[in-house]
Amino acid sequence: MIQRRLFHRLLQPFSSGTTGGSRCVMFGLHSAMKDRHTSSPPSSSSSTTQSTLPVRATEHTLIAVKPDGVQRRLVGQIIHRFEQRGFKLVGLKMMQASEDLLSEHYREIVKKPFYPLVRAYMTAGPVIVMVWEGSNVVQSSRKMVGPTNGAEAQAGTIRGDFSFHVGRNVVHASDSTEGAQREIGLWFQENELLNWESCDQDWTIEANEDKQ
Ligand code: IDP
Ligand code: MG
Q1: Is the pLDDT of residue 47 over 70?
Q2: In what order do the strands lie in the sheet with 88-95?
Q3: How far apart, in whole angstroms, are the C-alpha atoms of residue 63 and residue 77?
Q4: DSSP H helices in the chain
Q5: Residue 209: what pLDDT?
Q6: Mean pLDDT value of segment 105-128
């Protein structure tokens, strides 16, 4: 059964709240869970300046390590790149994709002559699907992943470093905020996405970045 729930509220600018005097951001859909799942770093809650910082709008994207990436033991290196960039992981799981889910996910290419190859590739083994959060994360992730054909991807991109064929390109990244919203709703249930407050937030994005 295809999970069709669209998490419209997930990609809306975060609602704001306070927890113990510190800034607190949360998923709209997880707001009821904030007391259970948000935690305030000690330094943050004791700071008089941080409590006045603006709540920042942000966005989410779906990243997947495809079956070749799992088989080739590239999962850790791929996750590392997104962590290193400073993005925040808010959902992750391993799963065997069904043909129905894939045809929804790839609805834009499902009629292409090469789609049967894509279906065989993507169902040949488990995938790792993730939701990453951060300012401009959709566009930045596409740049980190590189063009579809690894043969054309620059060194330094994931596909440029780990692939050289369009049919074995290791990783998926949503190509727009609307696409990300749709894909997250396909691959994840609401209770599989977790809000948490990262301790490096004030060190990865400037305080004035609140007008996206
Ligand atoms: P993207 O993954 O860079 O967004 P899309 O055009 O959305 O690229 O295509 C989805 C996936 O379909 C690609 O990542 C790749 O795995 C596969 N694909 C695209 N074009 C071809 C092709 O010409 N031959 C085989 N597989 C392809
Ligand atoms: Mg695409």
Answers
A1: no
A2: 88-95, 127-134, 59-65, 171-173
A3: 13
A4: 34-37, 42-46, 67-71, 75-85, 99-105, 115-122, 137-145, 158-162, 177-187, 201-204
A5: 58
A6: 98
CB distance 88 to 134 below 8 Å: yes
Q: Which of 108, 110, 166 to mutate to test the pocket of ligand 1 (most atoms within 8 A of CB)?
A: 166
Residues 6+ apart with CB under 8 A from 117: 167
Is ligand 1 within 6 A of the CB of residue 169?
yes
**To test ligand 1's pocket by mutation, which of 118, 127, 138 has the most ligand atoms within 8 angstroms of CB?**
118
pLDDT band of residue 189 (cuts 50, 70, 90) is very high
118 C-beta closer than 6 A to ligand 1 = yes
Grouping H, G, I as helix, E, B as strand and the rest as coil, residue 77 is: helix
Question: Residue 58: its pLDDT value, please?
Answer: 85
| Average pLDDT over the chain, rounded to an integer | 80
- Ligand nearest the Cα of residue 118 is 1
Residue 83 DSSP SS3: helix
What distance in Å separates the CA atoms of residue 40 and residue 19, rounded to the nearest whole number? 7
Sole residue written with tokens 């991109």:
157
Indicate which atom in ligand 1 lies nearest the CA of residue 168. Answer: 16
Predicted local distance difference test score (pLDDT) of residue 50: 37
